[in-house]
Design brief:
7 helices
């Protein structure tokens, strides 16, 4: 499913080269739940951006479903992001003036494969994913009318709408209290089990990482241990 080989990432800041990743290699099986941990500056956000096809490595290879995506064009990366990867962020990133329904549907309008999909079918798909996260009674609300946990559920539904094979969650409980954070983790694990989603979580919280099957720890851009 996911394989990275000797990934490096170097940022050029004027005349200074700043290495963020220094030869990272690992493999994640389809359907696995993996946590990526590390202190600030360890390279975990850089690694997440590469795994999410938001950035390219300086060197090394990244295979997703057997395809080397480490040297694709911007258009090809965008296509893979839309078709294979769902994103969940700490800040929810919902559009405040749009209803829950419209926030969830939004990715469908940017997916070429949905060009001939009817409005009725789009509504049906968004209804199904909102039901799967327990928000069927909040579809017409706006994000600011929801609790933090409900907003994160909307973000998860939006990430699911294009039926991705990989879910990347960047500090998904970081803005939530411990009880709500646990509820969100249980929801993600439920989706992993029911849909076979590969779940990769970036977190600094050991209690969240404890829910994973495996932890990849980064330190100074290298894997410390697993």
């Amino acid at each position: 499913m996911i394989e990275v080989k000797d990934l490096t990432k170097i940022y050029h800041l004027g005349s200074v080269d700043v290495p963020a990743l220094r030869g990272v290699s690992f493999h994640i099986e389809a359907g696995e739940v993996v946590a990526i941990m590390g202190a600030s500056g360890s390279g975990k956000s850089t690694l997440m951006n590469i795994l999410g096809c938001l950035d390219l490595p300086t060197s090394g290879q990244y295979f997703l479903d057997g395809k080397d995506v480490s040297k694709l064009s911007e258009d090809e990366l965008a296509r893979i992001r839309n078709q294979k990867i769902g994103f969940v962020f700490q800040m929810f990133n919902l559009l405040p003036r749009m209803s829950v329904w419209k926030n969830v549907e939004l990715p469908l309008y940017y997916a070429p494969q949905n060009g001939n999909t009817s409005t009725q079918e789009i509504h049906h798909r968004s209804k199904l994913v909102l039901e799967s996260v327990g928000l069927e009674d909040r579809m017409d609300h706006r994000p600011l009318e929801l609790s933090g946990g409900q907003q994160q559920r909307v973000a998860i539904a939006r990430a699911l709408i294009n039926q991705p094979s990989v879910m990347l969650a960047d500090e998904p409980t970081g803005n939530l209290d411990s009880h709500t954070g646990e509820e969100i983790m249980q929801l993600l694990l439920k989706l992993n089990q029911e849909r076979g989603l590969t779940l990769v979580i970036v977190t600094h919280d050991q209690t969240i990482a404890d829910h994973s099957q495996r932890v990849i720890r980064l330190r100074d851009g290298m894997i410390e241990n697993e």
